[in-house]
User: Fold these one by one.
Assistant:
Number 1:
Amino acid sequence: MTDSRGGRAAPPRALTIAGSDSGGGAGIQGDLKTFQELGVHGMSVVTAITAQNSLGVQRIAPVAPELIEAQLDSVLGDIGADAVKTGMLPTPESVAAAAAAVRRYGLERLVVDPVRTAKDGRRLMAGEAFEALAELLLPLAELATPNVPEAAALLGVPERDIRTVDERVDAAKALLSFGSRHVLLKGGHAEGDECLDILVAASDGGRRPALLGGPRLARRHTHGTGCALSSAVCAALAGGAAAEAACREAKAFVAAAIAGSYPTGAGVGSLRHEAWRAGGAFDGRR
Ligand SMILES: Nc1ncnc2c1ncn2[C@@H]1O[C@H](COP(=O)(O)OP(=O)(O)OP(=O)(O)O)[C@@H](O)[C@H]1O
Ligand SMILES: Cc1ncc(COP(=O)(O)O)c(N)n1
């Protein structure tokens, strides 16, 4: 297809508002790889610089709120976005800047990944930033993608109370009270042979949950799975998919990337973001 100026028609536009992961597997870097693999034009607003690798997060420097606002205005004032995702928002000010831009530019298709800690347990969002996210950003979201520890923190209950499928369905429903139109409660941190994500919609009060199942893959190198999932949903939403279809496609994308994951450094290695495009044909060995 060509546009009126004779160029190729532009792909859908997807924006990530997140932290930089110097190791390349999660954060901005993982999100842009995912966007590229899923055929959307990927853009980024960097909220923090992290020094991190396969062993963990060594250092974090939040980006100044004015610089976050400037990036948002540069991108959204000119290029625009068909869908947006947020990841690491290190301070309440960065949350407020993201929420203000979502409102100002009328962005409907927003995925909020309430990233709280990295795999090594290092806190990526301060407590006040997490509270600001619940108050300012979740009410604007088409979809929130908490994992079980994040769901427990939001609901103020112990993680052990969100274990069985029934408990997880109830938790997903309860999370709708924060105002997002859908909640996808991820199952990576749950137990069992199945890796079950649970999607509920505010439109029916969460009464008809969609169960997104799949085998739990025995892989060690899973750095960045949460980032890949939320950016894959964002890419599908940018292309016009409905929320459930976007979540199903994203889950398949992440499963292939985990199946093809590979070691980097001495610790937890990386997803293979290109695995889905390549037909999921990797077996996890280099
Ligand atoms: N071992 C696994 N096998 C198959 N799918 C998995 C596995 N681990 C996670 N997933 C899937 O990956 C996606 C991300 O889930 P997860 O719960 O790991 O997110 P997260 O905790 O935010 O990620 P991270 O640990 O990177 O922060 C979900 O769709 C989940 O079902
Ligand atoms: C900048 C940034 N954002 C998000 C994550 C979470 O990813 P994971 O839990 O897989 O380490 C991360 N490690 N770094």
Number 2:
Amino acid sequence: MDSRDKRSNPQLQKALCYSNVERRHASSPSVIVIGGGFAGIAAARALYDASFQVTVLESRDRIGGRVHTDYSFGFPVDLGASWLHGVCKENPLAPVIGRLGLPLYRTSGDNSVLYDHDLESYALFDMDGNQVAQDLVSKVGQIFESILKEACTFPISLPSLFLFHSFWLIEIVFVTHQNITNILFLCAYFFVDLCCRLVQTDLVRQDFREDMPISRAISIVFERRPDLRLEGLDYKVLQWYLCRMEGWFAADADTISLKFWDQEELLPGGHGLMVRGYLPVINTLAKGLDIRLGHRVTKIVRRYHGVKVTVEDGRTFVADAAIVAVPLGVLKSNRIKFEPRLPEWKEAAINDLGIGIENKIVLHFEKVFWPNVEFLGVVAESSYECSYFLNLHKATGHSVLVYMPAGQLARDIEKMSDEAAASFAFMQLKRILPNASEPIQYLVSHWGADENTLGSYSYDMVGKSHDLYERLRIPVDNLFFAGEATSFEYPGSVHGAYSTGLMAAEDCRMRVLERYGELDILHPVMGEDPPISVPLLISRM
Ligand SMILES: Cc1cc2nc3c(=O)[nH]c(=O)nc-3n(C[C@H](O)[C@H](O)[C@H](O)COP(=O)(O)OP(=O)(O)OC[C@H]3O[C@@H](n4cnc5c(N)ncnc54)[C@H](O)[C@@H]3O)c2cc1C
């Protein structure tokens, strides 16, 4: 509740004079949710349904946060999240999307080397506009997978190494009936060979004991396995795979942790584009909630009896508890002051978790002039120079290509004006399709510079612990934390953000129950009945 409004209202002023206990008995417990993205809205919805008084304070003039469906072209285009990662009933968002009957266009199945794309429908070009042969792209894809496997696993386990040598010796001794001198010679040879391999294994292990950037690990693999080294066009295609990987983490390969890059849990069912955009989902969740747009929180004071939250223009809001669901980038920037300060372990988690940048430059054309594939790629000497365009025409029927730079490239493009950024993307397209016609409209996102986000999504940086997501989630007194960066299982995703919102709501409900003993009036956050399961509408099965 806005405390300035209360000062001008005598009845409310009287109500304010009640002790906390009386106030809580007079009404249900209250909570302030800070941030109206998927995490915040999920938490607010759950607590509202559990009979809490909920106020959402959102800094922007819209809800959704990094889910931002734009309609200025006359049809929906997502400038933030657009895929449901894990098209399956286990996805926490599946019941909501299924009930709304929203169609999904599946761009990949499980375990694709290109994450959210299959290698079935693509066209890669070099900088001179020559299309790369499909079998070369597939071959390099397999090599890329081998490189990652080599980088992350020991070449041979010790027991299998001993077994391998023993079998070999036994076979030679008994099958070929060597004389004793030869057998001794062979034994000596195998002993030396075994020692060399053990030393090599141990060296690799030592290398891997210390975390390192994925880019360095790849160089080490090349030293150990020269047969995996590529040159010429093959090398450029390999750089393009790296570029796709960097897009997935929104970070450059020299900052991604080798130890943890593959620790995130991928739900089954592949990846599906939300054909009509994500907005209908969050709008449905937000229905009936008290959401205050344009309320940028600057200070959060926590005391035993509750929290006081201050917004930019000085107004304050009070409640029994608060859920902080602002992006990691905003927490890192210290633009919200916590009083008392957050504990050291929480501040360290905020500092140590990485936040990457990925942007979208959406180009709308008069008509389609590109090949009928799901994405177009540009291969080059370095992953920085590689790029790719998502062809929305395949999924939505609209003549739209989406250029998606990540990491340093995204940071560099953010320094340009929107017009220059759109021209840059168009130039890349012209390289591969020289007859491309000019776009009639464009949209450019700025997730790194936008003060409401300050980054696109979280990732594991080199040398940091993987439990930072969990540490970020753990409550501090009556402050609860939600958001994609607090999701240990599904960081950097909409369903991850959504599930942390539900978790924070449940933690909050339990704490209020423990503290105030108001068991009867509060319903469980997740609802008593299991959600009705409605199958997802998926095209391109
Ligand atoms: C380009 C891009 C592509 C992506 N693609 C996908 C995808 O395809 N699939 C997928 O699953 N995920 C994707 N993601 C990630 C996904 O969008 C996020 O993980 C998710 O939306 C985060 O939700 P959230 O609630 O944690 O944070 P947000 O959505 O960022 O919500 C936080 C809210 O807090 C508000 N806020 C900030 N500061 C304050 C303040 N001081 N006071 C009050 N309010 C404040 C913000 O305005 C915002 O509304 C993508 C993200 C980006 C940027």
